[in-house]
Amino acid sequence: MRGRVSVARQFRRVHRGRGWRLYSGVAAVVALALVVACATTGPGKRDIILISTPQEVAIGQQVVGQVEQEERVLNDPVVNAYLSRVGSRVVQVCDRPKLAYTFKALESDEINAFAVPGGFVYVYTGLMKELGNEAQLAAVLGHEVAHIVARHSIKKLQQIYGYSLLLELAGGKEISPAARLIADVGATLILQGYSRDNEFEADEYGTLYAYRAGYTPDGMVELLETFQDLDQSRHTFIEQLLATHPPVPDRIERVEEEIGTFPASALTLPDHAAEYVDIRSRLP
């Protein structure tokens, strides 16, 4: 997106000459304490995360500023309230429920949704038009919430910048302008998508969260089958999807295996189709 190459150059200039030396004394002890600290990244899962939740939210807010300058947020409070209501049901049963999540629709024919670190979730109206019920929407939101729970974007940023940030924090400093520039570079990385392993994980957690929220887990299977059907008519879409996502049949197979571990009663849960169709009729 506009200006991001120059931002990356600025970041490199700020760090030029600092080297990768390790601070000594008390700072090294603080660094060690940070390294051994773990954070929740999924059901029963914890990983080393160097970027704190407040820093994650601050990074996300800067990315959101860029997103909402370049995209059009749907000006329909009814649709956005509905998204928030369904999203809240998913959040209540996810593994990072204390974040302040927001859910918004973006007015575009693009068939996609994405998550921004810190709890920000966007769904394009183009995707919403392809869905047939609320359970499918819950699967979409569950998938995106799962990316936030697993801190996939934060792990990506951490791999690139984490050691440098750790040294700043270990030195007892406030986050520098250089660290804030990560958010600008990070927007590009976040919107580029995730690894295929990340997508499998988001499918797994998202299916579980939608089920926990009281939706039939078949919503995720139906969602993935919708993507498969689009392969018949929109090759450009499916080619872009497959560039970063695992093959859809592989995703369906894994989700069906997961659903097989749920109680049989899971498939009797509702999909709330009628209410969703009413909301879909409002989309431009």
Task: Walk me through what this model shows.
This protein has 284 residues and is mainly α. The protein has 13 helices and five strands. The strands form two sheets. Strands 3-5-4 form a three-stranded mixed sheet, sandwiched between helices. It has a two-stranded antiparallel sheet with strand order 1-2. The chain is globular, with a radius of gyration of 20 Å.
Return residue spans where pLDDT drops below 50 for at least 5 consecutive residues.
Answer: 1-34, 169-173
Continuous helix count: 13
**Alpha-beta classification:** mainly alpha
Strand order of the largest sheet: 3-5-4
The share of residues in helices is 55-70%
In terms of DSSP E residues, the strand content is 5-15%
What's the number of extended β-strand segments? 5
User: Which radius of gyration do the C-alpha atoms yield?
Assistant: 20 Å
Shape: globular
Kindly state the mean pLDDT as a whole number? 81
Helix-strand sequence: HHEEHHEEEHHHHHHHHH
Task: State the distance separating the first and last CA atoms.
Answer: 26 Å
